[in-house]
Amino acid sequence: MSKEKLIEYLRNEKQISPVVRTAIADNFNSITISKNQFLLTEGKICNEYLFMEKGYLRAFAHDTGGNEVTTNFYCPGRVIFEVSSFFNRTRSKENIQALTDCEGWYITYEQLNSLFHTLPEFREFGRAMLVNGFTELKARMLSMITETAEERYQHLLKTSPEIFQHAPLKTIASYLGITDTSLSRIRKDLVKK
Amino acid sequence: MSKEKLIEYLRNEKQISPVVRTAIADNFNSITISKNQFLLTEGKICNEYLFMEKGYLRAFAHDTGGNEVTTNFYCPGRVIFEVSSFFNRTRSKENIQALTDCEGWYITYEQLNSLFHTLPEFREFGRAMLVNGFTELKARMLSMITETAEERYQHLLKTSPEIFQHAPLKTIASYLGITDTSLSRIRKDLVKK
DNA sequence: ACGGCTTCTTGCCAATTGACAAGAAATGAG
DNA sequence: CTCATTTCTTGTCAATTGGCAAGAAGCCGT
């Protein structure tokens, strides 16, 4: 697997010149994760800053009752890492697990910092990733407050239909903030309409 | 008003030396906002990176029905700005309004960038602000999924009781993701218990 | 102090959702 | 292939919540 896609991805940050893009890509290491394998488990410190080229993953936490709650889904072409644990060097409260076999590129925390140092333009990329993640989460929060469960379901179905091919419905239900029972009923009702 | 509190706040970032802290603080300008005045309105580009020393504010958006939805409350000692609009230079979808008279310190987007350039250590501070905001929002998202409305109310009451002295209940209700009617009922039920 | 506006509470009813449990269907390991 | 496990659906019932509307209480500007 070549680093083409990775370089293409870095390209979205216009401040970064082509030469620097290649230099940055040089620092990434290849990684494969097989289905169900964990990229990060609760209690560990997230040490990988990962660009995923192929495959799907999900992040999940446990609520006070010990139930799994899906906090995010990751599709190909995304950067994946647990922000708080990675930057604050604290134990993660989340798990990140592969839903399918995955292939991608990663750098470690130390590598990222040394990249920030040697190629300052990469900082812009790092910041853009943070800002994007933040904006996305904010939009999801707003939809959680203003939309009904059915609307949230329809929205996810429209924007990320692939998720439904790779994640079980009960996993998707907790992401939407409802029980699997409710999701099942919502889907049933929509067939009628 | 002296810049003591601002400097003290910058101190939380241990990577920043005392001398640099003072240098950073020198670049902040004083600002006062009177009650109900807007720091940012929908459609404008957020241009202020604000450290609030006294006073309370709230951020709110409009849902598809045109109703106001409170997205955040800001207490003294916090940095306030709309991340996406500020960094991406895009029109804000949110409003930020003072709940009380406020006093604080701000720098503009241009000033922030030049500070990043002249005092690179300030970048760490900027990143920490982003990471903190992200972590906070994630926690709120999880509570929105796993906790009942009553639990979310109790939690806010415990962690930010001051909010209840400065914001009307209907504003707080939309922050909690419920209607003012529901919040009123929850409060009534809690008196009984 | 007055009038008007906003905020808050409460009642009624309908819709949504969760808890629990049972059974069908699909999946995976050996 | 077979058995065990997981996933998904469905039913019943109770609890939560929203929509709507009316009335009380509080706040603000003149």
Layout of secondary structure:
The structure is a homodimer of 193-residue chains.
Chain A: H1 4-10, H2 18-26, E1 29-33, E2 38-40, E3 48-54, E4 57-62, E5 68-74, E6 78-80, H3 83-88, E7 95-98, E8 102-108, H4 109-118, H5 121-146, H6 149-159, H7 163-166, H8 169-176, H9 180-192
Antiparallel strand pairs in A: 1-8, 2-7, 3-6, 3-8, 4-5, 4-7
Helix pairs in contact in A: 8-9
Chain A binds a DNA duplex (30 and 30 nucleotides) through helix 9.
Polypeptide structure, described:
The structure is a homodimer of 193-residue chains. Chain A is of the alpha+beta class and 193 residues long. Chain A has a domain at 4-118: Sandwich (Jelly Rolls). In chain A, 49% of the residues lie in helices and 22% in strands. Chain A has helices at residues 4-10, 18-26, 83-88, 109-118, 121-146, 149-159, 163-166, 169-176, 180-192, and strands at 29-33, 38-40, 48-54, 57-62, 68-74, 78-80, 95-98, 102-108. In chain A, strands 1-8-3-6 form a 4-stranded antiparallel beta sheet. Chain A has a 4-stranded antiparallel beta sheet with strand order 2-7-4-5. In chain A, β4 and β5 (68-74) form a beta hairpin. In chain A, α8 (169-176) crosses α9 (180-192). The longest helix of chain A is centred in the C-terminal third of the chain and has 26 residues, at 121-146. Chain A is globular and about 55 Å long. Chain A starts with a helix and ends with a helix.
